[in-house]
Write a structure and sequence with these properties.
By secondary structure, the protein is an alpha+beta fold. Helix content is about 40%, strand content about 10%. The protein has a domain of about 220 residues: Class II aldolase/adducin N-terminal domain (L-fuculose-1-phosphate Aldolase, 3-Layer(aba) Sandwich), CATH 3.40.225. The strands form two sheets. An eight-stranded mixed sheet has the order 6-5-4-3-7-10-9-8, sandwiched between helices.
Length: about 350
């Protein structure tokens, strides 16, 4: 006999991030809970927490619970819990589009929802105008399991990270202008400059150029992404990962904002000031306390805050005393130049006079 799900049981399913068992019958109130609708005069409310909370948007599943048959996969793909994640992906797509982090059909988003299941955005679609029904479901090898639209080819790069780093539940790839400028210039951003960047990003990784969507790119970015939540891809853009889609989006904002600040600061002529390795260790401990990895934790202090490879852009500032070999006072005429100008002027005037006579 099919199991009947009550409203209370539906609230418990939502709390755990689970779905109703196959063939279950939902009572009207349970359907309202799962689909977020309340009938007139029947308010649906979750139990109030005992005290202040920190929202947790991470999608959790029971290991070994992936659906196996085509029917079960389709039922999972259209379940209320997965539909809510699709809506969130579309919301993040709109936000990166409105930020000018993507143009045309650029960028892509993936979100892990099982041992071997990943939601992803389709190919050839503007991230600012996606609909939940256009999302795809793939496995960790890139095989499409559900969804009417074809998955993005660059999902393989995301999977290259997810396979190596279990904490990477969501990956976002985009082309934020300031961070992508670093990618085009071949410059890895420096460190030890802004505390928030060190806590929420860690050190930004740098992946050498490979053809987008290729196995080589998935391998290159995947290896760098194990220890770096934000990776600048040479001549391409940025890919970030987090525990959920909101967390990953924040990493994208953090990356572009940090690169913009460093770029502006490098043009001011005052140098780029850093805090000490001791202070960085404090920030790394805070980062680790928030559950984020940081491979710098075991480095020696002399290895931290090493920005020796960073070369700021050209600063439009005249050197003191003038350029080498030039007069110290630019207003003082050079006698040799003055003589040459006078000689040429005299010759021009003589020829003009000869033509007029």
């Amino acid at each position: 006999m099919p199991k009947v799900i009550t409203a209370k049981e539906a609230e418990e399913l939502l709390r755990k991030g689970d779905q109703p068992p196959a063939g279950a019958i939902l009572t009207p109130s349970a359907r309202d809970v799962l689909f977020g609708r309340a009938r007139p005069g029947h308010a649906v409310s979750a139990p109030k927490p005992a005290g202040p909370i920190v929202p947790d948007y991470e999608f959790k599943w029971a290991p070994g619970s992936d659906p196996k048959t085509p029917a079960d996969i389709e039922r999972f793909f259209i379940s209320p819990a997965i539909h809510a994640l699709k809506v969130k992906i579309c919301d993040i797509g709109r936000r990166i589009w409105e930020k000018d982090y993507v143009d045309g059909n650029g960028g892509n988003i993936t979100l892990r929802v099982g041992d071997n299941l990943v939601l992803c955005t389709p190919t050839l679609i503007s991230k600012g105008f996606m609909a939940p029904d256009e999302m795809c479901l793939i496995d960790l090898d890139g095989k499409q399991l559900a969804g009417e639209r074809k998955r993005t080819s660059e999902a393989m790069t995301h999977l290259g990270i997810m396979k190596r780093q279990p904490k990477a539940k969501c990956c976002i790839h985009a082309h934020p202008p300031h961070a992508t400028a670093f990618a085009v210039a071949g410059v890895q951003p420096p460190t030890c400059m802004i505390p928030e960047a060190e806590v929420f990003l860690g050190k930004i990784g740098y992946a050498k150029y490979q053809t987008p969507g290729s196995p080589e790119n998935a391998d290159e970015v995947g290896k760098i992404g194990v220890d770096h939540q934000s990776v600048i891809m040479e001549n391409h853009g940025v890919i970030v990962w987090g525990k959920d889609v909101e967390d990953a989006y924040w990493k994208m904002e953090n990356t572009n904002s940090y690169c913009k600040t460093v770029w502006i600061a490098s043009q001011l002529g005052g140098g780029l000031h850093t805090f000490s390795p001791e202070k960085l260790k404090d920030l790394i401990r805070i980062r680790q306390g928030m559950g984020m990895p940081d491979n710098r934790a075991d480095l020696r202090e002399c290895e931290l805050c090493d920005n020796s490879d960073f070369r700021p852009g050209v600063v439009c500032q005249a050197p003191e005393g003038g350029a080498a070999g030039a007069p110290a006072n630019p207003e003082t005429p050079d006698p040799a130049v003055e003589a040459a100008v006078r000689q040429i002027t005299d010759q021009v005037l003589k020829r003009l006079s000869a033509k007029q006579s």
